[in-house]
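Quarterly update from the structural biology core.
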Amino acid sequence: MKTLLIVDVQNDFCTGGVLAAKGGEEVVPVINSIVDKFDLIIASKDWHPKQTKHFNKWPPHCVQHTYGAAFHTDLNIDKIDQIFFKGTGTLDDGYSAFEATNVNMYEYLSKQEVSQLYVSGIATDYCVLSSALDSVQAGYTTYVITDAVRAVNVNPDDGDKALQQMKDAGCILITSENI
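Predicted structure, tokenized:
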């Protein structure tokens, strides 16, 4: 089954958010334009408690039940079949969608007979990277949709390095028009 994973397209990671990836909201129209090409749509959310060790590394972001944790308002969420919450504890970072705490993603994808996982979202150099690497390691044919991801770029080339790391690990880099 061909599945789209939308990683953390949340207000705090878009322009105006506390941890915005430059142009994060630009992934929204790309994602919205491709959802009909997939059998299954899943999404992850950073879903942090107010107090977590994760905020020793990053400014507080995507705190549970806040505007910053909500999906970007223009994202077509009606097509999402399952949402995976990650980073929900006080000690975990929750970078990968496979670290979700509300639903076991490995079991869910197995039950849905997923064979191909297409990864989109924010941030290329953190949560997209971790999710894509876990997907490859789990044995899925993993595609990263390069025009549907954006990087934080703490260092200017972090996003490019992450894409190369994903490619080296076995991910297939494509654009939305090649799906």
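The chain has a mean pLDDT of 96.
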